[in-house]
Design a protein that fits this description.
The chain has 6 helices and 13 strands. It starts with a strand and ends with a helix. The radius of gyration is 15 Å and the shape is globular. The chain has one domain: Metallo-beta-lactamase, Chain A. 24% of the residues lie in helices and 28% in strands.
Length: 199
Amino acid sequence: MIVHTIELSVSKSYLLECGRKLVLVDTGYSAEEADIILEKVRELGRKIDDVKYCILTHRHEDHTLGLRRIKESTGASIISHEAEAPEIEKISGVQVNMKMRDHDAIDECGGIEFINVPGHTEGNLCLYIRKEKALFAGDTVFADEQGRFTPPPEMYCDNVAMARRELKRLLVLDFDKIYVSHGESLLTGAKEALKSIIE
């Protein structure tokens, strides 16, 4: 698996190369940001319809407002947690094809498991790729420019106490890397770093 980080105005999207298929994680704040993602696909020498799945970590607009452009361009299957799907569909006008629950998985990239960590939003998802010892955390944790983690800020959370408390769900997983949507991802020692903000 090759991970491409796409820096957008407010958050990051990730493009995962899993053999011949591409998996997109989050779609940015606008159709224009979706176009930046699509340009990245072309830069890789790939076809737009190589994007087979588009996974939304949660419903917030900086992750979902590019969805319509992505869907119309790629025809990808859209994935979110079942609790986020109605709001995502309302915001974007795009149907969510696969509505996940905690520990559901798809086979791409050697297996992507969906871990529900509620609090930031009810259906907030992390993507766990065991084979890569990697976690795509969305807004489950934020980081600064040095990759130091913090729980998500209170002003963006449905329930900030829950968002902090439920981080412990991640400690049962075997990972070394955390890719975040805000701040610098940490690609070594991420589990220990996460543990330190929980304890």
